[in-house]
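User: I want to check something. If I give you two sequences, will you return the structure for each one separately, not as a complex?

Assistant: Yes, each is folded on its own. Here is the first sequence with its structure:
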Amino acid sequence: MSYKSQAVRTKVSPKESLKQSSKESFIEKFFHLREMKTDVRTEVVAGIATFMTMAYVIFVNPSILEVAGVPKGPAITATALAAGITTLMMALFTNYPFAIAAGMGLNGVVTFGLVKGMNLPWQAAMGVVFIEGVIVTILVLTNVREMVMDAIPITMKRAIGVGIGLFVATLGLVGSKLIVAHPATLVTFGSLKDKGVWVAIFGTLFTAVLMAYRVKGSILLGILASTALAIPLGVTELPKSLMSIPTAESFSTLFATFKTNPATGEPYIMQVLNIGMLGTIFAFLVTDFFDTMGTVVAIGGQAGFLDKNGKLPRIKRVLLVDSLAAVIGGAFGISSNTTYVESGAGVSEGGRTGLTSLVVAILFFLSMFFAPIAGIVPSQATAPALIIVGFLMMTVVKDIPFDDFSEAFPAFVTIISTPLTYSISHGIGYGFITYVIVKTLTGKSKDVHWLMWIVSAFFVLSFLY
């Protein structure tokens, strides 16, 4: 239905209709909705779906950082604020449906590696994140990061997307406890005595049926239906209050790394600006560098954004925003912010432009005031979305040339390593190293871009460290 027909059917005055049409025209022109064959409704639904699969970060990230000494209340506010700001940047500067929030891998490294392992104050640990983000930003501005992406062969790009798809599905299976840890077999099936497992099973089947019928908003409807079931089953509960108003203390983690350390009389960040911390900063850099690269390639492929060579148009803008997100995450005291694989939920709903990201950003900003409402949705309700998105992301496996072993085996290593190591960067690293070695030893070294050699060497150093 066109905007004009909508105005006529609601019988608004010509003046009001012109005003409404003008507003909608601005949205359409700014985000190129017609060009991307989408509309406002689709983008809004996609944004809500992405946010709901990501909303857990508002509570999980502060809980992890709390172990490091970061005050939980302020961390909740800062996590939502940083996610809102960086996702808004992605929406307005790149016009892609990618959402950004605090990364779930690096926050654990900050807590257990830097703070607990190296006895750094959490404020100093955030300095490592800040510095790493600045370095990656420089690599983007000097085109180094884009050059590395262009050097990756198309088969490996497809393999990265498939591997991340399996990783996303694994996150859903683990988050819903459909799969649990086991001392003998590493993993095993969950217990059907767990009501949350039934919520996840219901949600997955409900969403799958809707997807089969091509119902618009299937993933979002699946999340809502699963949440509705989770409430009477006691898997989640309604909040005691609807709002939580931030106070001045709520922003105490912001720029903490630049504040003076009473023990040294210098800013906390100075504690990590030394040669001894180079290895640690490098490890963070490699992880952040390739996690984002893999996510962008995977989601871009799922949405159909990649060209025949596997390149994403306007990639430099995406990488710049993502690197600045790491800087903002460190400065805000809530670990590195990065592009989220859960963006695939919105893409699966038809989200194709920055309007999807704009909706996500607005919801993150609102969650600073309505965090209790966001907390209603349990992991078992979002797990089905991740499982379905994982399936959709891995469908490009059909385009991998399995008749060429030198191409297919490195792809397989990437695919299998990503979910089993629980690390996008490790999956990419193992695949790259295998690709270089197999191609070289089978007399096909000319197929290997010189940057692949350098990147693989960096991965080896990172893994050894």
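And separately, the second sequence with its own structure:
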Amino acid sequence: MKHLISIHDLTKEEIYEIFDLSKKLKKDLKEGREHKLLKGKTLGMIFTKSSTRTRVSFEVGMYQLGGYPLFLSANDIQLGRGESIYDTAQVLSRYLDGIMIRTYDHQDVVDLARYGSIPVINGLTDLMHPCQVLADLFTIMEKKGELEGLKLAYIGDGNNMAHSLLHGCAKVGMDISVATPPNYECDSAIVEEAKEDAKLSGSKIVLTYDPVEAIQNADVVYTDTWVSMGQEAERSERLAVFKPYQVNKELFSLAKKDAIFLHCLPAYRGYEVTEDVIDGPNSVVFDEAENRLHVQKAIMVMVMGD
């Protein structure tokens, strides 16, 4: 692995390498064993979108690995004032050992990797959220013991989470059903990439407007906020459109009895999910959030380690 831009770029073998290392790093951390695998290395963390989990998990993870995490907000770098991505990538490559960027435009991540000479990790864009979905799949594997042949139902907006879940499930052989309202479907290019991978893995992909159809027989149920960062002006319209897509107790009961519930957080109880689901016995959202730390440590080691 040179970069982590998209799960579609990874092989199935690389994904399981990440999981194997994540499992070891998690176990060793809990048993008090340290691994300073990135000692003396610096990760530049560029944030033009704020975050709780992304910043804390990368910063703590880099510290635990013996490296130095350098936080760079839009106000801290000239990129937000008109400096080109080319110049930014060239300069940061002289100072840093890797870059993690959480931003709006996916092309910014692609261009940083293209023009720089150091590894780039996609911490989130409006198009994809690969680190989150790798942590999601790792969590499912922990809870279910396997991935291949399971079914994940995603209910909600056809956004960056839905895109990376399509990529991830297709790579590892999980079936995925995505239910979105009309006009809020997933990006067609992402869907085609996922279908390509699904042909190789045997994954089944279903795209529907019906949440009841999507959730039938699901082993995993997933949702996300209806109003993502930058969409605040659409809030009232979105709340009305997405109301039938709420994951509540009635809808969740249509999944398998032992289905688990996932949400990338932050969650807005009473909107995309009700309290009795997200705080219920089938919810693993906080285990999922913790696994961001362990999986991202593995990713950093694989792209920045010696």
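Because they were folded independently, the notes below concern the second chain alone. The chain has two domains: 7-129+289-304, 132-286. The CA atoms of residues 252 and 290 lie 24 Å apart.
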